[in-house]
Amino acid sequence: MFKLGEDQILVQDLVRRVAREKVAPRAQEIDRTAEYPHDMFEMLKELGLFLLPFPEEYGGANSMLSACVAVEEFGRVCYNTAYLLLVQWVPIGAILAGGTQEQKDRYLPGLAKGELRGALSLTEPQSGSDVSGIKTKARKDGGDYILDGNKIWCTNSGMADFVLVAAKTGTGDERGKINLFIVDTDTPGFNVGPKEDKMGARGVPSHSLYLENCRVPASAMLGDEETGFRVAMAALNDSRPIIGARAVGCAQGALDHAVEFIKNRHAFGQTIADFQGIKWMVADMETQTAAARLLVYQAAAALDAGVKGKELAHLAAMAKAFSTDTAMKVATDAVQLFGAAGISNEYGINRYFRDAKVLQIIEGTNQIQRNIISRSVLA
User: Fold this and answer.
1) pLDDT band at 226, cuts 50/70/90?
2) Whose C-alpha in 70, 146, 202, 286 is 20 to 30 A from the C-alpha of 295?
3) Is 78 found in the same domain as 193?
């Protein structure tokens, strides 16, 4: 049986209490207004929770498992507050893995303390899962690069101090060399478009980006031209267990709401929870959520133990695909258990349904995760 360590239990107790007392009362409003929750960001900053996956040299706990526990507990009551942790951590992994020492010194301390905010931009109108198909160009000009192109669905870019922008540096080959550039958001030629009106994940806005003759120094390239992008992309495997943790939190939260509802609603002279068919639904929801949690924790613990490469990619892909599919299944069943009330905005259960759908798509669709898993099995 997988057991959390003492450090993870301390994180779990703290976050669970804060989530119930301070976050849960705000969750419905954050979703309804689709406004960035500055108060939640400041709370996370004050609690020092941004530090959880950071190396000890930056004052962190260096624990992906602890990070997943925190994300799950926040996700149980508010997807968007959990999302604030993730969007802060994704640039960290890329810079740690692929960045120069100068880049690490410039950006990581501020990210760790919550004094800087970052974002990652890969997706374009014609290329989502196919990163190699991006069209944004980075043209060398003396000691600088000039970036031109359009991006979509860049989450957190409206609040970010910098964005990691993927652009092609190769010439001639339509699917040529790609690199990441650290672009400060006040750089001339870098423009953030209006926020998207999203179905779920509404409290952390996503925007289009427009780069027109955007000049950055060569030192803005993440790492070196030959290995920087590959190393940074490999680091995204490191963040994939956190996506799974959000899904587990979403599933558990939907189950929590459903159980409370069916225990207090009556039909045909008994509570809804007394019907055998309902009991079986609840049993499946609980089992699926528990299984997803174990996969996520296993992947996070493997990362903390130093597992890398194809083995980690396999574990992380299984955790992401299974946990997010589980979140969708459990949230769907939870809406069903609410009956007509489930489709009313008066009840928060439809928020879990909408957020779960987002999780199956972002950070690598579940179809892409299945490609990763099957390649590992068939190799």
Assistant:
1) confident
2) 202
3) no
